[in-house]
Amino acid sequence: MPMEPICAPATPLLSSPVAIIRVSGDSLNRVLEPLAQLPKPRMAALRRLEWDGYSERALVLHFPAPHSYTGEDVVEFHLHGNSLLVRRFLEHLGGIGIRLAKPGEFTQRALLNGKQNLLDVEALKDLLDAATDTQIRQAQARLGGVPAWIREAKEKIAFWVARTEAAVDYGEDENISLDMGALKSEVTVLNETFHVEQRRSASARWLKDGVRVAIVGKPNAGKSTLFNALAGEERAIVTEIPGTTRDVIEVKCEWADLPLCLFDTAGLRHSDDPIERLGVARVDPILEQADYVLHLVPAPDSAPDPEILQRLAPYHEKVLIVRNKCDLAESDGIRVSAINGELEPLKQAFIRRFLGEFAPDACLGALATKRQCELLADLIQQMEMISTLSDSCPVELPASLLQGAWLLIMRLTGEDRADATLDALFSGFCLGK
């Protein structure tokens, strides 16, 4: 089906040495003929572009269909990077029938034309959004095609879908039966793989999305010192005066191989200072959105403050008590000295909670988006239902469940083009992608 031509800047609309305008569509030779003669495929050539009184020397590249990013004809114009010039050029393209692309429309066409699968598209978006070295490596590892375990599962499920459908349609006439024992054995092996991938995905999601960490405690517990130590820079003011931190301070960093969003908070105590009270009041919203709450307790204290424990009680499942200033006194539990940078016990606690049995490198290539993880969970549930069927059940039951599993795998890779989540995914891309 012919697609109308689209265009978009592939570089930001800012002053720069070069600006790239990307065009995609059918028969671009004809559409762009009034503007420029296209060069030979995949060879750059200088062309004089003249329109509406403008005259521009541009580098032009032509990628004929189907050997292009979108699978359609693609042309790139490399102009001088004046943002007004770029806007005027885009206006001219619109005047000759090349409309401005919607966000992500180039990549969407690549998916529809079979140049990419949906897993690649999601990995590309994560790569563009990555803010840490770990996130870049995670996204890059997911580029390059459907993982082998998904391809193998798809082949095996396809075999059993065909087998059960044949038993349903021709079982009596052709004496085709279904070996439920063999099917269940295959399902067990598949589900073992799916469960491993599910655990890898749980760790990979933390690496992709990051961990929101709130540091709380009484004044002078060393919260700001720990905050600076984790951030790797002096972001919070540290003094011996209680109540120095009056507001929530936020910083993003990478620590223990995890992307962190750290929140340093005001010391929790009663105060007559109205500014300090405002700072304390802002702690509760941070506690609600945090994935991990570090309750910092000075090692010299015999026990945590009961009032703070009561305040943190609603969040107890994500609270970790950390005994700080262990260079001054002995204590039990997670022991650190933030001022001396002695944080190894805390690092191991982070790794156990968020990465579990997997090192970051073991998560490379794992499914990591919410959509992927939810589909994998549904796939496991579908396969487990097959395992609970009686060996003497009607063949229509496993046939229906296997069809459901097949559709879930198709949705996972994007071969089910009716997936309602696709528009939301592509809307998160920039115009030129």
Layout: helices, strands, pairs:
Layout: E1 6-9, E2 16-25, H1 28-31, E3 45-51, E4 54-63, E5 73-81, H2 83-95, E6 99-100, H3 105-112, H4 118-129, H5 133-142, H6 148-174, H7 180-209, E7 211-217, H8 223-231, E8 249-255, E9 258-264, H9 274-281, H10 283-289, E10 292-298, H11 306-312, E11 319-324, E12 334-335, H12 344-354, H13 370-387, H14 396-413, H15 422-426
Parallel strand pairs: 1-6, 7-9, 7-10, 10-11, 11-12
Antiparallel strand pairs: 1-2, 2-5, 3-4, 4-5, 8-9
Short description:
α4 packs antiparallel against α5 (133-142), α6 packs antiparallel against α14 (396-413) and α7 packs antiparallel against α13 (370-387). The chain has a six-stranded mixed β-sheet, with helices on one face. Strands 8-9-7-10-11-12 form a six-stranded mixed β-sheet, sandwiched between helices.
Give a structural overview.
The structure is a single chain. This protein is an alpha/beta fold. It folds into three domains: 6-112, Probable tRNA modification gtpase trme, domain 1 (Gyrase A, domain 2); 148-206 and 364-414, Up-down Bundle (Four Helix Bundle (Hemerythrin (Met), subunit A)), CATH 1.20.120; 212-358, P-loop containing nucleotide triphosphate hydrolases (Rossmann fold). Helices cover 43% and strands 18% of the residues. It has helices at residues 28-31, 83-95, 105-112, 118-129, 133-142, 148-174, 180-209, 223-231, 274-281, 283-289, 306-312, 344-354, 370-387, 396-413, 422-426, and strands at residues 6-9, 16-25, 45-51, 54-63, 73-81, 99-100, 211-217, 249-255, 258-264, 292-298, 319-324, 334-335. Helix 4 packs antiparallel against helix 5, helix 6 runs antiparallel to helix 7 (180-209) and helix 13 packs antiparallel against helix 14. The longest helix is centred in the middle third of the chain and has 30 residues, at 180-209. The two termini are 21 Å apart.
